[in-house]
Amino acid sequence: MTKTILRALAGEALPTPPIWMMRQAGRYLPEYRATRAEAGDFLSLCYTPDLAAEVTLQPIRRYNFDAAILFADILLVPQALGLDLWFVTGEGPRLSTVTTADQVAALKPTDAIHDTLSPVYETVRILSRELPQDTTLIGFAGAPWTVATYMVAGRGTKDQGPAHAMIAADRAAFRALIDRITDATIAYLSAQIEAGAEVVKLFDSWAGSLQGDDFTEFSLEPARKIIAALKARHPGIPVIAFPREAGDRYIGFARATGADCVALDNSVSADWAAANVQKDGCVQGNLDPRHMVTGGADLVAETRRIVDAFRGGPHIFNLGHGITPDANPDNVALMIETVRGA
Ligand code: CP3
After folding, report:
1. Are 309 and 270 in contact (CB under 8 A)?
2. Residue 245 half-sphere exposure, CB side, CA atoms within 13 Å?
3. Residue nearest to atom 39 of ligand 1 (CA)
4. Active-site annotation holder among 7, 33, 73, 304
5. CB under 8 Å to 135, separation ≥6 — which residues?
6. Three-state SS for 287?
7. Does the pLDDT at position 77 exceed 80?
8. In what helix (H) or strand (E) does residue 284 lie, and over which residues does it extend?
């Protein structure tokens, strides 16, 4: 009777892979846009537990995904550490910046993050009551490197240049920043688990821009630390790691960090990942999100190809990145039908 996602995460190859979708609650859904309008703005939506729970449930009602992902954002942690955060419509997030050792030292202590983040835990509590019995609740946080890139630049960047510049200018200060985010992430994910999250995922969306030792020090090592701390406190709670665009560094990432599953972006081929990554355990992915815009026979063929490639081992079907606002909700239904009927 165990939930399908938990069976896959425990290493079971299922005849039909369980399925959910990154950004499954989002602007491509009219019901999301309506609730967001009711909230007024994106951050109010994140911090109003009833509304955040409502948008989390919308894609479950519409599509019956096997998992729900908590509705929140990775940038709530920098805000909880004391930075200003706001979203500019049509452009994305803006934050006050941290670029020096003094500014790192001035961040709020780890224990203080719960003052800001407690509404998120309330959202998790509501969801664990309201989700259907066979739906798994996934909590999440940004990985320290990805979160740091926004804290240093004050916004999203194409090449994470400001964070790389801080590494070059003052590696010790950057390390201290990573350590502070690592501690906050452990506290944040532990609180989500205590509130009812059954799985947690670490989003390292910009892992691909780290080279050589920097990848080891700022992506792999913080993930290992976070996972070790979570496993010590909450044995049995699976962790999904998403070192996006890690390329051949996906190989061995689960073993080195203790992750139960790695999420694959759509730049790696499913056949390659089946041979090189899935041999260590569960993988999640990796349909190109553009198929949710274009649909049709290509969507069906690609979906089948991915299901077939990963059939020999544990697999959770997902996109390689978040669904985009211009996606057609009918294409999501077609993808699910294809996975479940394949
Ligand atoms: O997946 C889900 O449905 C859960 C909720 C979730 C959101 N963001 C909601 C959101 C999750 C897991 C995230 C993670 C996140 N947030 C990441 C890592 C994953 C990734 O996409 O690479 C990053 C880098 C962020 C930071 C962030 N949040 C950016 C850069 C933006 C603006 C870009 C955009 O798409 O507009 C956001 C806003 C955001 N977070 C939206 C949603 C649904 C859109 C906000 C809106 O309604 O206007």
Report:
1. yes
2. 10
3. 73
4. 73
5. 3, 60, 65, 66, 67, 68
6. strand
7. yes
8. strand 282-287
Residues 6+ apart with CB under 8 A from 214: 167
CB of 38 closer than 8 Å to CB of 101: no
Backbone angles phi, psi at 137, to 5 degrees: -100, 120
Q: Cα angle vertex 168, ends 162, 171, to 5°?
A: 105
Name the residue type at position 79.
Q
Rounded to two decimals, what is the model's pTM?
Answer: 0.97
Tokens 């500019």 sit at which residue?
Answer: 88
- Note the pLDDT of residue 1: 60
Over residues 76-87, mean pLDDT: 98
Tell me the domain boundaries of the chain.
Answer: 71-206+213-238
Atom 13 (ligand 1) nearest CA: 73
- Ligand 1, atom 33, lies closest to the CA of 92
Give the class (CATH, top level) of 71-206+213-238: alpha beta
72 CA → ligand 1 middle, Å: 8
DSSP reduced 3-state for 8: helix
- The residue whose CB lies within 8 Å of the most ligand 1 atoms, and thus the one to mutate among 69, 73, 75, is 73
Amino acid at 298: D
Is 289's C-beta closer than 6 angstroms to any atom of ligand 1?
Answer: no
Show the 3-state SS of 213-277.
Answer: HHHHHHHHHHHHHHHHHHHHHCCCCCEEEEECCCHHHHCCHHHHHCCCEEECCCCCCHHHHHHHC
| Contact between 57 and 130 (Cβ < 8 Å) | yes
Residue 71 CB–ligand 1 contact under 6 Å: yes
Question: How many A from CA of 92 to the centre of ligand 1?
Answer: 9
Residue 259 CB contacts under 8 Å (≥ 6 apart), including other chains: 202, 223, 227, 239, 240, 241, 253
Of 110, 114, 40, 36, which is closest to residue 71 (Cα–Cα)?
Answer: 36
pLDDT band at 89 (very low <50, low <70, confident <90, very high): confident
Note if 23 is an active site residue. yes
What's the first-to-final CA gap in the chain, in angstroms? 22
The reply to whether 27 belongs to the active site is yes
